[in-house]
C-alpha cells in the first residue's frame, strides 16, 4: 500500500449516478459492464449480482435494440445498484432507457448524429435529472476531427471531448462526466492529462480494449495508476477481455496499491523458493478465492520462511512466516503463542482472517458512530 505519496486529487464538479457520488473528492468509484445479452434477463441479473458481490459501484449495460431497452426496464426493477445505459447511434434508445429508469447514460455524441437528436437526449436527461457520460473513444472519433489529425492522437480525442463539453454547456446541461479512452496506454494517459486541465467535469478513466486478463491488467494498471497518481480520475473501469468480475477486482487492486480506496484483503506473498516451508502459491490462491466476500481492508502477509517472513508479518494486520511443520502467526505485528499447522494452514488462516475482519468491522463501526 502507498504510505509515502500523497495524491492531490484534481478538483472537479460533483454529479451523482443513482446514489453514487462522482467527482469533487468523492471516493473513486469502480465500474464494470455486463457482457451477457441484455435481452437474457436472468443471466444479466445474475452477472450484476456477481459484480455486486465483489464491490462494483455502478454497472453499465449495452442497449443496442428496442428489445434490449425493454429488458433493461425489467432488469432495473430487479437490481439494487445504479445502472448506466450504454447507447450508440439511436437516440430513441437513450430516451427509452431514461424512461425505463437508467441512472445515467453513456453516449458518444459523435455517433448519435444530428444535433436535434442530441438535444432531445439532453432535454430528457435534464427533465429526469439523469447524468450523462460523454465517452470519446479512439475507435469512434468524428470524421472531421480524424481528417484533421490523420489518426486518433491525444489532441484529437481531447478536441472531440471539448467540442461535446461545449455543446452540452450551451444547452445549460451540467450533469455530466467525460472520458477519453484509447487502447494505447500512452495516448490514453496523455489525452486525459490534457483534458484534465481544460474541463471542470468529473473524468471517467480507463484503457479501452486493453486485452486479455493478463495483458489488459498490465496495460490498465500502468495507465490508470499513472493518472490516479497525478490526481486524475473520479471513476474508472478496467476493460478486460475476461469475466467482468475480474475488472472490478483489478480496479480495487489498483486503488488499494495506490492507497486510495480499500476493500478486502491486500495479500502480500513471497515469490517462493526452495526455502519455503509450505506451498505459498497454493495457499495464496486458495485464500484469495475463499475470502472474496471479505470487505474489510487489511494486509495479510503469507511468507514461506523466516528470511522475510518476520519482517513482513510485523508490518501486516495478520502474517504467517513459514517454519518446519508449523508456521508462526503474527497479529498486528505481534507474535502469537499458537502456531499454524502447515498441513492445515489454509483453514486455520482463513479462520483467523475472518475473526480479525469481524473485530475490525466492529471497531470501525464504533469509531464511525463516535464521529
Ligand atoms: Fe524463499 Fe523465504 Fe524469500 Fe520466500 S521469503 S522467497 S521462501 S527465501
From TrEMBL:
Positions with a binding annotation for [4Fe-4S] cluster: 270, 273, 305, 312
Recorded name of the encoding gene: ispG
Function: Converts 2C-methyl-D-erythritol 2,4-cyclodiphosphate (ME-2,4cPP) into 1-hydroxy-2-methyl-2-(E)-butenyl 4-diphosphate.
Any Pfam family matching the protein: GcpE_C
NCBIfam families assigned: ispG_gcpE (TIGR00612), PRK00366.1 (NF001540)
Cofactor list: [4Fe-4S] cluster
Keyword tags: 4Fe-4S, Iron, Iron-sulfur, Isoprene biosynthesis, Metal-binding, Oxidoreductase
Pathway: Isoprenoid biosynthesis; isopentenyl diphosphate biosynthesis via DXP pathway; isopentenyl diphosphate from 1-deoxy-D-xylulose 5-phosphate: step 5/6
Highest classification ranks of the organism: Bacteria, Pseudomonadati, Pseudomonadota, Gammaproteobacteria, Enterobacterales
GO BP, one annotated term: isopentenyl diphosphate biosynthetic process, methylerythritol 4-phosphate pathway
InterPro entries: Dihydropteroate_synth-like_sf, Enolase-like_C_sf, IspG_bac, IspG_bac-typ, IspG_C, IspG_TIM, NO2/SO3_Rdtase_4Fe4S_sf
UniProt domain IspG TIM-barrel: residue ranges: 14-252
Protein name in the entry: 4-hydroxy-3-methylbut-2-en-1-yl diphosphate synthase (flavodoxin)
Domain of life: Bacteria
Family listed: Belongs to the IspG family.
Gene3D superfamilies with a match to the protein in the record: Dihydropteroate synthase-like, Sulfite Reductase Hemoprotein, domain 1
Class of the enzyme per the UniProt entry, highest EC level: oxidoreductase
Known catalytic reactions: (2E)-4-hydroxy-3-methylbut-2-enyl diphosphate + oxidized [flavodoxin] + H2O + 2 H(+) = 2-C-methyl-D-erythritol 2,4-cyclic diphosphate + reduced [flavodoxin]
EC number in record: 1.17.7.3
Cofactor note: Binds 1 [4Fe-4S] cluster.
Domain IspG C-terminal: 266-354
GO molecular function: 4 iron, 4 sulfur cluster binding; 4-hydroxy-3-methylbut-2-en-1-yl diphosphate synthase activity (ferredoxin); 4-hydroxy-3-methylbut-2-enyl-diphosphate synthase activity (flavodoxin); iron ion binding
